[in-house]
Write a structure and sequence with these properties.
This protein is of the alpha/beta class and about 525 residues long. The chain folds into 3 domains: about 1-80, Alpha-Beta Plaits; about 100-280 and about 480-525, FAD/NAD(P)-binding domain, CATH 3.50.50.60; about 285-475, no CATH class. About 30% of the residues lie in helices and about 25% in strands. It has helices spanning about 15-25, 60-70, 105-115, 130-140, 175-185, 205-220, 265-275, 295-300, 385-400, 410, 440-455, 510-525; strands at about 1-10, 35-40, 50-60, 75-80, 100, 120-125, 225, 230-235, 240-245, 250, 255-260, 280, 285-290, 320, 325-340, 350-355, 360-370, 405, 425-430, 430-435, 470-475, 480, 495. Strands 13, 14, 15, 16, 17, 18, 19, 20 and 21 form a 9-stranded mixed β-sheet that branches. A 5-stranded parallel β-sheet has the order 7-6-5-11-23, with helices on one face. The radius of gyration is 24 Å and the shape is globular. The model has no long low-confidence stretch (mean pLDDT about 95).
Length: about 525
């Protein structure tokens, strides 16, 4: 197969023009079939936007060989796409494997085990996505929190109520990344996630995709249980022997994949008491910022956004503050909402969410600042959890249980806002004016002010006085790493930590890939 990189076409091109360009690059060699491997928008010249493609092409083998021998174009090369294959089961076990958690890591681990005929038992503390959606909507409307079924807990994990972004920086020579995307498409995601440079599904579609994967696990003989919180691990001779569900039911086991999610703080505490090896890790904390979607579009695309049907614009921003901390945008949600993502009583955190069309009035992202174990009180592994809780409690207090919001000008001047400017919040959950400096460490607030001023150089209007700040974003990643060996086991034999909550991933795709890797280890090592 031949891959052609850097095929550039005007923003208003059609498929025939793309195919003509492919043929021109191959000097009219007969094409058997072709597919888009990657597509992105080049917006560096606002008066001449273009799409840039990488395309995979199949041609007759003999002509491919001759062409490649003569080819001097570095943008044309032979490729052998890596097709992912899950290994054959070689490790025999007495009990069915158990998967704890149905976020991306647990969901994909369970799917792979089910497809291998192992009939896993999947335990999820929260509810199925249909009931979970009703619980979340009720919370956003009334403020009445279900601590076991919310934006953090339930089928699909925290990523379900997000933008459904699927880009990852994980190096992947085994084809797991492509396999994850293909699996999402198989179960209802749009096909363009296979080639868009920044693929996303959107919360509205992701809910159905997650449900479809669960039904496939069940069809293959897997058992899926909701409201099944694991409250204890039974361990003998440093080996897992059983689980306790809801403090009463015991399930015998000899292999457990633990995919708890980054907010399973009670689970982390229980594991710590069991002396399972873990360590505190760095993460980041900050605020969500909201700008008009059309403002971001115009800054990124220029006037072309008024002429062409372009995808809602995204951005990625980084800055190194004078105090040495990194400031950066995170989990950018084009045309989305800021959502109340709380999971504990009297504590508040926010996240971002977009539907597939990304047509909300505002675009938002987290602007966050790095924190390390040196910032935490104490040196124990759960010190980062307590750091998060401290600032989430203050956010709840100053917002009176609602999402605390503030204009950027007032944040700089350390005062509570009294009225909005031209921008008004686009949130899921009610809001309250408050001074966000009261629920952030001082050095984080200072870094955010610096970063916002710098980002104005990248996106016109980013530092405008009436930018909406919503707080706080505290669950950017797990504050804990559950240590594991080269066979993916924890310090307890038969217990396999994985995914974002265990400290080994940073998003939907990387978590799903980690779940697959751990499932591979479970069946072969």
């Amino acid at each position: 197969m031949i891959r052609i990189h850097q095929i550039k076409l005007p923003i208003d091109h059609d498929r025939k023009q793309l195919e003509k360009k492919i043929k021109k690059n191959l000097h009219k060699i007969p094409i058997q079939k072709w597919r888009i491997q990657k597509r992105s928008i080049d917006a560096r010249k606002k008066d001449a936007l273009s799409y840039v493609y990488a395309v995979d092409v199949e041609v007759p083998l003999e002509q491919e060989k001759i062409f490649l021998e003569r080819n001097r174009n570095r943008n044309i090369q032979k490729v052998q796409p890596q097709k992912y294959h899950f290994p054959m089961v070689t490790k025999k076990r007495k009990h069915p494997p158990i998967v704890i958690g149905m976020g991306p890591a647990g969901l994909f681990a369970a799917l792979m085990l089910a497809r291998s005929g192992l009939k896993p038992i999947v335990l999820e503390r929260g509810q199925a996505v249909e009931q979970r959606t009703r619980d979340v909507e009720h919370f956003w409307k009334t403020g009445e929190l279900n601590t076991e079924s919310n934006v953090q807990f339930g089928e699909g994990g925290a990523g379900t109520f997000s933008d459904g972004k699927l880009n990852t920086l994980v190096k992947d020579k085994f084809g797991r990344n492509r396999f994850v995307l293909e699996t999402f498409v198989e179960f209802g995601a749009p096909e363009d996630i296979l080639y868009e440079s920044k693929p996303h599904i959107g919360t509205d579609l992701l809910c159905q995709v997650v449900s479809n994967i669960r039904k496939e696990i069940q069809r293959l003989g897997g058992e899926v249980r909701f409201g099944a919180k694991v409250t204890d691990f039974l361990i003998e001779n440093h080996r897992v022997k059983g689980l306790v569900i809801q403090e009463k039911e015991i399930i015998d086991c000899d292999a457990v994949i633990l995919a708890p999610g980054h907010s399973a703080r009670d689970t982390f505490a229980m594991l710590y008491e069991k002396q399972i090896s873990m360590s505190a890790k760095a993460f980041a904390i900050g605020v969500r910022v909201e700008h008009p979607r059309e403002m971001i579009n115009e800054s990124q695309y220029g006037k072309a956004c008024e002429i062409y049907d372009l995808p809602t614009a995204s951005y990625k921003l980084t800055y190194h503050a004078q105090n040495g901390r990194s400031v950066y945008s995170f989990c950018m949600c084009p045309g989305g909402f800021v959502v109340n993502a709380s999971s504990e009583e009297k504590r508040l955190t926010v996240n971002g969410m977009s539907n597939h069309d990304r047509m909300g009035k505002n675009s938002n992202s987290a602007i966050i600042v790095s924190v390390t174990p040196e910032d935490f009180d104490g040196e124990e592994p759960l010190a980062g959890v307590e750091f998060q809780r401290k600032w989430e409690e203050r956010a709840f207090q100053i917002g009176k249980g609602k999402i605390p919001v503030q204009l950027l000008k007032d944040f700089r001047e350390d005062r509570i806002s009294k009225q909005y400017g031209e921008i008004t919040p686009n949130t899921k959950g009610t809001v309250e004016f408050a001074n966000l400096r009261q629920c952030l460490p001082q050095e984080v607030s200072e870094s955010i002010c610096e970063g916002m001023a710098y980002f104005e150089n990248k996106i016109r209007g980013f530092n405008r006085d009436d930018t909406i700040l919503c707080g706080i974003e505290a669950r950017t990643s797990s504050p804990v790493r559950l240590n594991r060996n080269e066979y993916f086991e924890s310090s307890i034999k038969g217990l396999y930590p994985c995914g974002e909550g265990a400290g080994y991933a940073g998003g939907i795709t990387s978590a799903a890939m980690d779940g697959i890797k751990v499932a591979e280890a479970l069946v072969t090592v």
